[in-house]
Amino acid sequence: MQDLIKNYFTESIQTQIVMAESLSTIIEKAATTTVNALLNGNKIMSCGNGSSAANVQSFTSRLITSIDIERPSIPAMALVSDNVLLSAIINHDDIYAHQIQALGQQGDILIVLTCKGNSKAIIKSVQEAVIKDMTIIALTGSDGGELVGLLGQNDIEIRIPSYKRSVIYEMHGMVLNCLYQLIENTLFIHHE
């Protein structure tokens, strides 16, 4: 059991080191893009399935209710949170697309989390965001899947360098935490 524990932490640390080197520029671009959208009066919408939904809810809660500093709420919506609405949508593949159709506006940010990039619900959410002229920030893993082909020139993919779901979920959480802190620092902490 000790070996499994050490292997888990070693794999996580090694993935983080690779990410720090290879993804820092793209994470900075995602934060800057999001801050600019917020300064233009837009909002952040986000979605993901399963464990990704938990990451989305945590990220959204931190944007709305700050952890470390007193500041105004940042306009954000987790499209995974309304149980009544989610159960009312008959076709599960349309679960996020319907919400984007109803609430998304040009210039809004859609953040999607997907391990393999092939979930029909995520694909349809991105297709709807494209129709609405929203900017898409896709947190992916593996080879990015079908989703990558839907991303436009102004969209951003942050691909975790792993094929292992548990590592991808963990790293998605880390990227979202980094994005949250970059957004908050840029908007509310004055640097001298």
Brief write-up:
The chain is α/β, with parallel strands linked by helices.
Describe the structure.
The protein has a 5-stranded parallel beta sheet, with helices on both faces. Helix 3 (51-64) links the parallel strand 1 and strand 2. Helix 2 crosses helix 7 (165-188), helix 3 packs parallel to helix 7 (165-188) and helix 5 packs parallel to helix 6 (120-131). The chain has 7 helices and 5 strands. 39% of the residues are buried. The chain has 192 residues and is of the alpha/beta class.
Number of distinct helices: 7
What is the terminal-to-terminal distance?
A: 49 Å
> Uncertain spans, ≥5 residues at pLDDT below 50?
none
Please bin the fraction of helical residues: 40-55%
**What kind of sheet is the major sheet?**
5 strands, parallel
Strand content: 5-15%
Topology:
Elements: H1 2-22, H2 24-39, E1 44-48, H3 51-64, E2 76-78, H4 83-88, H5 97-103, E3 109-113, H6 120-131, E4 135-140, E5 156-159, H7 165-188
Highlighted features:
about 190 residues; alpha/beta; 5-stranded parallel beta sheet; globular
